[in-house]
């Protein structure tokens, strides 16, 4: 990186380090309850909370969390208001605000937490953070390079996320297409005709233990598991398990309840060798079909459109077992079901590989950016003695 090497050459001479209180004014945020709606962003430690009609300052400024997400340091270059979970700093004329922002990012302020509960930072601690003060020329060149790096990183991340989304869309299209083509001439029948749908009951997260009988909570169907699983992440005691619904190998577990329409009706095939249990807000489908074919079909637009006729609720969406019984499913022969599963498993494996690879690439680029940022912002301290 020639530009970085050029700047590092300018950093050979030691520079003074000063406490933050000597390079910037530090202000406490205030409540925004009295402010009317407007165009000025109101910041909390998590970011913009709303927009108000009055500014605490016209900027630029560096916002440092006082409580909560201490690592979430922010830079603003226009009017803003901060609530009392933030400090805001106004750099003096020998420090560029953006330089101060980038340097504070390297200081891992979250490690200065002084509370046992909600992470907290006092102004006294913040004031003592030592800041290097190179020439304005060096500060401006570092800011220019890091601004470029930040922009490039954001562009790359957007490209990789778009690629990931495109691959996911491609996978969904292929899954829906192969199931549609392979079942086009298949007889359709209600789920009640291909097996027995049994609604679970009981089991809360407080019932979980470190070992015992394997258990799948209904919420895990759409937060933890994909199409099928042969392992669990939760257990209940044998005594609790006796009062819960048994899931046999090959059974389908279907969510009956969710906060949104997309997740309700999510199905996961249990492919483990042992019986496990499930509880309330879940239905078990016992059947003699290919379990993964059924689970894949539950992801298709065919099922999604049908379930909309029976799902009910506003804040909580319900899809009862009695409603599931009416869902019509195309049922090809077991050999065709097996072929569909084989094709979709191959394609899904490629998609999963991509899903892991792209985030890893994003993380690698972010670490590379942090490396060069920290290198640029490392200075020798001037010894006054």
UniProtKB/TrEMBL annotation:
<keyword id="KW-0255">Endonuclease</keyword>
<keyword id="KW-0238">DNA-binding</keyword>
<keyword id="KW-0378">Hydrolase</keyword>
<dbReference type="InterPro" id="IPR044946">
    <property type="entry name" value="Restrct_endonuc_typeI_TRD_sf"/>
</dbReference>
<feature type="domain" description="Type I restriction modification DNA specificity">
    <location>
        <begin position="190"/>
        <end position="363"/>
    </location>
</feature>
<dbReference type="GO" id="GO:0016787">
    <property type="term" value="F:hydrolase activity"/>
</dbReference>
<keyword id="KW-0680">Restriction system</keyword>
<dbReference type="Pfam" id="PF01420">
    <property type="entry name" value="Methylase_S"/>
</dbReference>
<dbReference type="InterPro" id="IPR000055">
    <property type="entry name" value="Restrct_endonuc_typeI_TRD"/>
</dbReference>
<comment type="subunit">
    <text>The methyltransferase is composed of M and S polypeptides.</text>
</comment>
<comment type="similarity">
    <text>Belongs to the type-I restriction system S methylase family.</text>
</comment>
<feature type="domain" description="Type I restriction modification DNA specificity">
    <location>
        <begin position="19"/>
        <end position="165"/>
    </location>
</feature>
<protein>
    <submittedName>
        <fullName>Restriction endonuclease subunit S</fullName>
        <ecNumber>3.1.21.-</ecNumber>
    </submittedName>
</protein>
<keyword id="KW-0540">Nuclease</keyword>
<dbReference type="InterPro" id="IPR051212">
    <property type="entry name" value="Type-I_RE_S_subunit"/>
</dbReference>
<dbReference type="GO" id="GO:0004519">
    <property type="term" value="F:endonuclease activity"/>
</dbReference>
């Amino acid at each position: 990186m020639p530009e970085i090497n050029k700047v590092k050459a300018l950093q050979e001479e030691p520079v003074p380090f000063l406490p933050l209180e000597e390079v910037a004014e530090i202000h406490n945020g205030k409540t925004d309850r009295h402010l009317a709606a407007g165009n000025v962003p109101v910041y909390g430690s998590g970011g913009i909370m709303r927009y108000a009609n009055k500014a605490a300052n016209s900027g630029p400024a560096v916002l440092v969390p006082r409580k909560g997400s201490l690592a979430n340091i922010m830079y603003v270059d226009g009017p803003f208001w901060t609530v009392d979970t933030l400090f805001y700093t106004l750099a003096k004329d020998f420090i560029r605000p953006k330089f101060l922002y980038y340097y504070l990012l390297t200081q891992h302020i979250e490690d200065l937490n002084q509370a046992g509960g909600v992470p907290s930072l006092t102004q006294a601690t913040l004031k003592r953070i030592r800041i290097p003060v190179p020439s304005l020329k060096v500060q401006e060149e570092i800011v220019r390079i890091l601004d470029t790096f930040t922009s490039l990183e954001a562009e790359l991340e957007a490209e990789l996320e778009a690629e990931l989304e495109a691959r996911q869309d491609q996978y969904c299209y292929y899954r829906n297409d192969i199931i549609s083509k392979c079942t086009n001439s298949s007889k359709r029948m209600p789920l009640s005709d291909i097996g027995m749908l049994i609604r679970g009951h009981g089991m809360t997260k407080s019932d979980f233990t470190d070992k015992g009988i394997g258990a799948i909570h209904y919420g895990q169907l759409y937060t933890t598991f994909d199409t099928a699983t042969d392992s669990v992440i939760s257990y209940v005691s044998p005594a609790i398990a006796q009062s819960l619904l048994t899931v046999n190998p090959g059974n389908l577990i279907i969510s009956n309840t969710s906060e949104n329409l997309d997740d309700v009706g999510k199905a996961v095939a249990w492919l483990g060798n042992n019986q496990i249990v499930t509880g309330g807000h879940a239905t078990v489908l016992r059947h003699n079909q290919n379990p993964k074919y059924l689970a894949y079909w539950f992801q298709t637009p065919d099922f999604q459109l049908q379930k909309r006729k029976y799902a009910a609720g506003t804040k909580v969406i319900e899809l009862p077992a009695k409603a599931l019984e009416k869902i019509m499913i195309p049922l090809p022969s077991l050999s065709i079901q097996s072929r569909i599963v084989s094709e979709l498993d191959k394609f899904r494996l490629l998609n999963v590989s991509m899903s892991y690879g792209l985030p890893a690439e994003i993380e690698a680029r972010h670490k590379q950016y942090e490396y060069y940022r920290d290198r640029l912002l490392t200075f020798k301290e001037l010894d006054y003695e």
